[in-house]
Amino acid sequence: MNKKSNIIKIVKEDILRILGEQRRRVSLEILKEKIKVSLSFICEAIEELEREGLIKSQQIFLP
Question: What superkingdom heads the lineage (predicted)?
Answer without folding.
Answer: Bacteria
